[in-house]
Amino acid sequence: LYAIISSGLTLTFGVLEFIIFAHGDTAMAGGFMFFSFYVAFGLPLALSVILAVLGTALLGIIIEKTTFKPVRDKQAFIPLVLSIGVAIILQSIVLMIYGGGSQTYFQNISPTVFHFNEGKISISLVQIIIILSSIIIISALYLFLKYTRIGKAIRAVSDNKEVAAIMGINVARTITILFAIGSGLAAIGGILTAFDQNLHPRMGLAISIKAFAAIILGGVGKLHGAIIASIIIGFIENLFIGLTGISASYR
């Protein structure tokens, strides 16, 4: 989960060179969009996922066009502060619609859990599905960036915007596509997170902190580093607590 969310954040940073504090709240918004389609409207699971990801990608495009594009060439602290404002707005919209309580995808359903090492290590069926889904999504992202025309354009703009423009790449269009991809990845991360936990309007802050930690540990702007660092953080905070008996509140 950390890898999916941090990969979208580090891709965006690689091009724009500033951190978007609203990334975790974009993931939260994607989770609530899925909740609306799947629980409130009763749509099929797969269709709900697709609509939530597309809706969050569109949300990312709107945010980029209205908020970050006008200040793209300004000092870095300006879009950074604006991103905090975007996070507050997203939280406020969800609070107005759903209130301040927690929401869950599944009501009165006991999860299937597997236990190992005399019960010290536990993993649920949902968590196994999350792991497999994450492997597929990250692999697809890697292949997309390496072999597709749009992926190569994103890498070129990330390396040098001016040279990319000289080579005929539409930089503005590429950044818009990047925001859509990053927001879509955040939505997937938010949806999968809420499969394992409850949805809450303020869950975006915790997601953002883990994503920031991963991209700093892995090297800011480096996709491979962010993915590896995310896995390290995830395993350390779970296995260290589970195997040492230290209280989970210290994670």
Structure description:
By secondary structure, the chain is mostly helical. It has helices at 2-16, 23-40, 45-68, 77-98, 125-147, 149-159, 161-166, 171-196, 203-218, 223-244; strands at 113-116, 121-124. The chain has a two-stranded antiparallel sheet. The longest helix is centred in the last third of the chain and has 26 residues, at 171-196. The radius of gyration is 18 Å and the shape is globular. It starts with a helix and ends in a 7-residue tail after the last helix. 39% of the residues are buried.
Structural Rg: 18 Å
The structural class is mainly alpha
Q: Oligomeric status of the shown chains?
A: single chain
Q: Beta fraction of the residues?
A: under 5%
Number of strands: 2
Strand order of the largest sheet: 1-2
Q: Roughly what is the average pLDDT, rounded to an integer?
A: 87
Give the SSE order as H and E letters.
Answer: HHHHEEHHHHHH
From the spread of the alpha carbons, the general shape counts as globular
Annotation keywords:
mainly alpha; 10 helices; about 250 residues
Brief summary:
The protein is mainly alpha-helical. Helices cover 73% and strands 3% of the residues. It is globular, with a radius of gyration of 18 Å.
Blueprint of the fold:
Blueprint: H1 2-16, H2 23-40, H3 45-68, H4 77-98, E1 113-116, E2 121-124, H5 125-147, H6 149-159, H7 161-166, H8 171-196, H9 203-218, H10 223-244
Antiparallel strand pairs: 1-2
Helix pairs in contact: 1-6, 1-8, 1-9, 1-10, 2-3, 2-4, 2-8, 2-9, 3-8, 5-6, 6-8, 9-10
